[in-house]
Amino acid sequence: MKKQLISIVIVCFGLTGCEKFLDKTDPTATTFEEFFVDEDDLRRVVYSTYLDVFTNRDDRKLLFYMKDARSDNAYARNEDDHHQRIANGTMNSNTRAFEFYWTIHMKHIGRLNTYIANIDVPYVEDEAVRQRYKAILEGLRIWHYFEAVMRWGNIPFVLEPASVEEAKAEPMPKEQVLDNLFAMAAEVTTRLPEGEYTTNKYMFNRNSFKALIMRYALFNERYELAAQLAREIMDSGQYELYANYGDLFQYEGDTRNREFIIHMERESVGNGATYSFRDLGPHFRTGNGQSYAVPLKSLVDAYWTLQGRPIDECPLYTKEDYELNPGLNRDPRYAASIMGPGDIFYGEPIDVYNPGNPMYYENQRASKSGFWFRKFVSDADAFRDGTLTFGLIRYAEVLLTYAEAKLMLNDFDELAKDCINQVRRRAGLDMTIADVTLPRFSGYSHDQWVDLLRNERRIEFAGEGLRYDDILRWHIAEDVLNKPALGHTRLINGQLVSLKIEDRSFAPHNYLWPFHQTVLRVEPDLVQNPGY
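Above: the chain's sequence. Below: its structure in token form.
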């Protein structure tokens, strides 16, 4: 009986949506058939399906920039955001995070199955509108399934509306699920319009959906597909790198670029505020910065020099020089992405060691690492909610995906090297030394190119939510997450001392997440992943 009750609760939850979704054409409607009747209803379904998860700006747990705190890039100070326990390894099959994420993906897959099965019901004047919305809904279902299969491995794969009992399908092997998803994605792509929309810009078009599938192809080592899709997006001529890397994440360039491929902008969040300053920014006087996710020393040290060299291989300065002065002779993406002691914020120098300063590192709303993300944090938002536009996928990812995929295919061509150079040149590196077509790179081994590309990807996308998936797919999480989370480094009594936030651990079985015990009770055909 208890199991039955839990199932009923989950199914009821699965039929609910956000408040916007419940704004029905007929306010007296009480059933699915009564409110899913016309084009406005269809539009609201698509909008709410994006807003609930894909472009949700209200729930920090779902925001892309918070996800770096699952990795060696950042630290999340609030345990309720779930990222902290994933990063430090204090998780098990009763950890609330795994019920939350499983439920939210399965809930929306269930909703999408119902909408897609009934897509012919609403009245529309233009049949092309229906087909566009259908393709977009199918694309969102594919996205939910990609996220679920990457987290848990073998999962049920259901594409039709199902009763509670029918939904308890046996898990399908991960590779079979992926085969289905990539095949479905190829077909959906052909039914999406080629260009961006004048309104609803955030919704999938042909190239933006290709970019999403390209990402998951790379994540799942489908390198030929990843390279193919990246090349098709490049050849489309629809996108280009924005000239100024730093402005791309500030109001100066957020709406004035052709680099963003999937957008999270005002329309996608119901013309509401965005909260990146609140989530990432420093507490300043009476400002609203909460420092919920902050960079770590590991990320700071990952920024190579202006000449494109690791900080421990630079002939100009010592590694200690760089650790004590992170802005010294550094890749310009550092100053555009991170700020810390001695940097200027809102016209004043940052001081994390003064107990009388609101940015003192031991204060609750301050950064325990002594660093903050500059990306998505505008001085203009210090005392207000923001309206920044975010790029959930941008053209730089296409370029670096092509380069990595071709390297892994042992077909590292001149275009792949040019892709790296485009990204480095835009960043502002000294290309008389950093140009990867120069003779000094001609003797690079495969492993050296791998190291270069991985680091290029890490610093180009710092704070953009990609690092956790990268360390999992590269199978380096056991190395980088079995170290303490450290912050700013200073010299004390002649010794380098770094702020220590927490110890971390990562076990081999943590590459997959556990099914929560509640989920296993409700879905008895699921098999717990090893190690939990």
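Residues 454 and 466 are 12 Å apart (CA to CA).
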